Amino acid sequence: MSFDVKRIVTDRTADGKSVFANEGPAPADTVLGLEIHNIWGTGDGGPSVGAGNNSATVPFPFFPGPGGTRFIVVRFPPESAAAADGDPEAAVADAEQKQPGLVGVFEPDTPGMHTTDSIDYGICVDGELFLELDDGAELHVTPGTCVVQRGTRHAWHNRGDRPCTMIYVLVGAERTAG
Which residues are in the Cupin type-2 domain (predicted)? Predict the structure, then answer.
């Protein structure tokens, strides 16, 4: 069920009329084998809406700070398709240049494993993944599966033979001790 990712953004004019502010393909980057579409983001501290003064998108850093949000679509390639060739340092530098703040959360000694200070709402719309937690426990994620990721250490694995498309809304949170 592969599909093209399209973005429609609405706004309000200074006199309060609702309008379509943007319509078209969603911006995309391919980094570390992932296809990432940055649909929209809001600044830290919480968004606001109004007439004629709505903020532009804030897509970076990739993971929002407390009160910020990100709306993204990610296509995970099959792990069997991962490129073993090339310069890993160059790939990381490319990812950081295209998607600032993405690679810094990943653990260098445990590929794919990462922890973020965010509540992430994810829904699988195509393909399949395995969600792994830090103790090695895994669950199979298939179309229609909704995941609520609450700042836990985890990794995503596509062990299938085709890409998996996930849609996420990330909400920046404060990590508390304990």
Answer: 112-169
